[in-house]
From TrEMBL:
Coiled coil: none annotated. InterPro entries: GDSL (IPR001087), Iah1-like (IPR045136), SGNH_hydro_sf (IPR036514). This is Isoamyl acetate-hydrolyzing esterase 1 homolog. One of its GO terms (molecular function) is hydrolase activity, acting on ester bonds. PANTHER family: ISOAMYL ACETATE-HYDROLYZING ESTERASE 1, ISOAMYL ACETATE-HYDROLYZING ESTERASE 1 HOMOLOG. It comes from Pocillopora meandrina. Belongs to the 'GDSL' lipolytic enzyme family. IAH1 subfamily. Pfam families: Lipase_GDSL.
Length: 236
């Protein structure tokens, strides 16, 4: 049997992705769910905006989609840092700048051999304003983000996905549809245990339409003749 390529699922984003491999994180849940079917790669960069990520993506793809076709799906989650108020945080972008960057990022994935059907776009989630204000006060930093600022970015994110034929999971909308959604964020922005669980629950059914066909890598141990394991692992 020929040595199989281990497919890769790339998670690309900011701190909401970087922290997703923490205990109970949505990325860790995906890694567990797809274990032995594909490697889940965390490519989250805390504090980054789409303006930063579009420049690092070529390096990520060079590493993670090499050889071409080894990345079988990707999730992109950006926008929370883009939405900060530029008057208090110079990272802040306009909605149109964000949209242009997001289209650039998705196009880069597609130009590297991935189909639109292999991509999933997550909108930036809702912000619990009171919690976020408390967090900023504790850190002695100005409040540069609030829920009303995120909404147009989430809407634009969904529009970009629609234009490019990329499936969108609208976290902003889905959060607001839950009566207890403020419990989904620990500090007003980043996911709590409950929030991570909720995100994973929304993402897995979407990913299964793209990755559900992946076989388990190498035979189940019960299917291997212990007297002749070479027959299962050493043949081309």
């Amino acid at each position: 049997m020929a040595v199989r390529l281990f497919p890769k699922l790339v998670l690309f984003g900011d701190s909401l992705t970087q922290q997703s491999f923490s205990e109970g994180g949505w990325g860790a849940t995906l890694a567990d769910y797809y274990q032995r079917k594909c490697d889940v790669l965390n490519r989250g960069f805390s504090g980054y905006t789409s303006a930063y990520n579009k420049f690092i993506l070529p390096k990520v793809l060079q590493s993670d989609n090499n050889p071409k076709g080894s990345a079988v799906a990707a999730i992109v989650l950006l926008g929370s840092n883009d939405a900060v108020c530029n008057e208090t945080d110079p990272r802040g972008l306009t909605v149109e700048q964000y949209a242009t960057n997001l289209m650039d990022i998705l196009t880069q994935f597609m130009n590297d051999g991935m189909e639109a059907s292999q991509l999933v776009l997550l909108t930036p989630p809702a912000v619990a304003d009171d919690k976020y204000k408390e967090c900023c006060a504790e850190r002695d930093v100005p409040v540069s983000l609030w829920d009303a600022r995120v909404k147009p970015f989430a809407e634009k994110c969904a529009d970009v996905g629609k234009k490019l034929g990329v499936e969108v999971v609208d976290l902003y909308k889905l959060f607001h549809e839950q009566p207890n959604w403020e419990s989904f964020v620990s500090d007003g922005l980043h996911f709590s245990k409950e929030g991570n669980q909720f995100v994973a629950q929304q993402v897995i059914p979407v990913l299964d339409t793209k990755l559900g066909h992946l076989p388990i890598i190498f035979p189940d141990w019960k299917d291997v003749d212990p007297k002749h394991p070479d027959r299962y692992f050493c043949n081309d």
